[in-house]
Amino acid sequence: MKIAVVDDDKAICEAIAQLIKNQESEAEVCQFSSGKEMLETGENFAISFLDIAMEEMSGLELAGKLRQEQERKGWVKSILIFITGYREYMEEAFDVNAFHYLVKPIDEEKFSKVFRRAWKEVSALEEQSKKYIVIKNSGTQQKIYLKDIYYIESSNKKVIYHTKNGRFDTYGKMEELEKELGNAFYRCHRCYLVNMEKICAYSADTIQVVGGDELILAQKKYTDFVKRYMRYAKELSMFEMLFPVFMYFIDSILSVIYTWSFQEGRYRKKIVFVVWSIVCFFIQIAIFEMLNSRFSVNEVARIILNICILLFMQFLFFKKDIQKQFFIAFSFVAGKETVKYIVSVFSIAFTGLWNKTFDIILAKSESNTLDKLYSWEDISLAVIVIICVLFYAFLLSVYLLLISKKFVRKDYLLQTHENVFLILPCIATLCISITIKMMIISVENGMTVIVYDSVPTTKFWIPVICVLLLFTIIASVILFQKLVQYNEEAVKRAILENQVRQMQKEIEEIQDIYTDMRGLRHDMRSHLSNISLYVKTIIGTDSEELKSYIGKMEETVSRLDFIYQTGNPITDIIIHQKSQEAQKKKIQFDVDFIFPSKQKIDAYDVGVVLDNALENAIEACCEVEGEKSIYLHAFVKGNLFFIEIENSYSGKVVFDVETRLPVSHKKDAKLHGLGISNIQRCAKKYMGDIDIVLSDTGNKKRFNLTIMMYGKISHP
């Protein structure tokens, strides 16, 4: 690429040439001490740095002659950058379509920024030169390169292409052409589409193009034209270039928060958050920006890379849980990709609204210098980018929060088929997002076509589809949780039924033994009384030794009696068994229990409640050091039957978020955490429920469980 530097000060000329070389070492820089010397070369330089205040010919005069020469020979309009120590020339510089205006002494940083924009613009022009459009002309297909088109005119249902190779007539519609050609062309009037690259001058009501033709500029379009023309002449703003960087930063932060809500970290939370965010951010920059600058990364590869990055990060910072890690990676990437399309439509709508404000500001401004217009444009883009980034962060956060909240059983170990059930909606969403991307952006005849322009209704339907896709993923999580809960309920129900059947069998056997024991106990006491009387009669006196022996035998027989008489043999047996177990473990066991015989409550259901509740109470007391006790109390109030079990405990009681019931701290919690659930199930069978109260007074912790059962009183 050839670059010209024109300045009558040799030192400044060499300094600018060096600055250019520092930016692009491969650039061919030609230095000239006057405008005449440059014109004599007869070359069209891609970029020209022109000093304004020169003796023989000013930079403004030189710029005018260059534009005339480019117009006459049909050359590509070069980029002109003025360098001077006088700010009053800004307006004149803008009149000759200058790319920028640098004031002496030249700031190296500002020079670098302007030069990079100019270099990028030239590269874009070279790319633009490859684009073409195909028309029908005189019954044949005619390929016309966009770089050769000066302007397009509509006349009597015909479309006339004015090019450097002549005129070409065909049938067509200006509306369709305007959408097809994109931002490289501007519709300055209902009858004209002008190539932005071929504009050499303009006024309040006309636009002059290469070749000398003047086109009408609609008065109401002047403000929009100035803004569009300025926009066309400059590179992406800093905020546009930083937009993907902001997105990577947000993705890094939200991904670690989302992952932490599901998994247990290998390191402390703060360390994981900081290191994960930094590492993940730079990995994305390295892959999607640096790598993509050298190799074209398609949509499918980009999504796969995103998933792999998340899996890799989880492997580094979190404990192994492969099934759940796959779900986290797929659900996050699916949500991220889908939210992007919602934001893209939002950005279009917001940009349109903001541009109206920008138009008002531009129209009311009395003087619009190049630097001033650029500043206004940068502010406009900064606002749009910031709003879009914040909206993206908000939507993605809401989506991830909903999944995290609805996935209640985060401790649940996913099976492979369950994980497939959860991941399939995510894969479907990703496939649809790829399809949406292919639908939104396509290339026809070398031109980029945006579906939003050709089919405006997609601005409504694409966000709707994306929202439905996100809710599909959330709905699958909710459904999965319901299925897990249903399966667990089924397991608990089966265990309870088995427990009841086993208890019925045991109680029936114990009842038989109890009946036999009652008869045996009566006979043994009668025999002992007779033996005592017989010995006394024969010996004639009481023997202390014999008396003690017979007393011990009577005590042994007495043990066959149940200590607690509740009014029902089933509850007698259960309470007796649990009291004997508590006694062995040195637990104080107090009972105040009477079975509600007048109420229609099955003794077996009461037995299930007592068996589970007292078993849990004994287990809790075993973990207590020092004094430990259990208190069983029951009372009737109207049609309501209350059972209250209070016991000592130690440590911390953790309640399940969903069921609000205590969670077992044993290794196999799924098998051991059913006692309270079974008690609650029995209570609800009688239109009742349970209530748990924890108290901590000093070193004494008490666990109070109250069971309420409704039993209609039966009248004899």
Descriptive account of the structure:
The chain contains 20 helices and 22 strands. With 716 residues, it is an alpha+beta fold. The chain folds into four domains: 2-128, 3-Layer(aba) Sandwich (Rossmann fold), CATH 3.40.50.2300; 132-233, LytTr DNA-binding domain (OB fold (Dihydrolipoamide Acetyltransferase, E2P)); 238-489, no CATH class; 563-716, 2-Layer Sandwich (Heat Shock Protein 90), CATH 3.30.565. The chain has a five-stranded parallel β-sheet with strand order 2-1-3-4-5, sandwiched between helices. Strand 11 (185-189) and strand 12 (192-195) form a beta hairpin. Helix 8 (238-260) packs across helix 9 and helix 15 crosses helix 18 (603-622). The longest helix is centred in the last third of the chain and has 82 residues, at 458-539. The chain is elongated and about 160 Å long. The model is unreliable at 366-370, 443-449 and 668-672 (pLDDT under 50).
- Coarse morphology: elongated
In total, how many beta strands? Answer: 22
Helical amount: 55-70%
Number of helices: 20
Give a short account of the largest sheet.
Answer: 5 strands, parallel
| Count of spatially separate domains | 4
- Largest beta sheet: what is the strand line-up? 2-1-3-4-5
Question: Could you tell me the strand content as a percent range?
Answer: 15-25%
